[in-house]
Amino acid sequence: MRVLYFAWLREKTGTSAEEITLPAGITTAAQLIGWLAARGPGYAAAFANPAVLRCAIGQEFCPLDTPLAGAAEVAFFPPVTGG
Questions:
Q1: pTM value?
Q2: Do 6 and 77 contact (CB within 8 A), yes or no?
Q3: Considering the domain boundaries, does residue 36 fall inside one?
Q4: Quick check: is 82 in a domain?
């Protein structure tokens, strides 16, 4: 699975994208966030407050409780504002 990080998530994790093998038992975007946060200090900082994160699975916006089954790409980013 390809995981993409945008804006300050990219800065805190130190990468814009990576390929991961989804661990057994991780079935939703929220669970993926928990797993990613445990990978190190930068990831912990990036995912410290999941309530402010947005997610897209397969380039479709979705809530964090969305299942990951069959997903090839997951993106995480801060709320988007216009102006």
A1: 0.92
A2: yes
A3: yes
A4: no
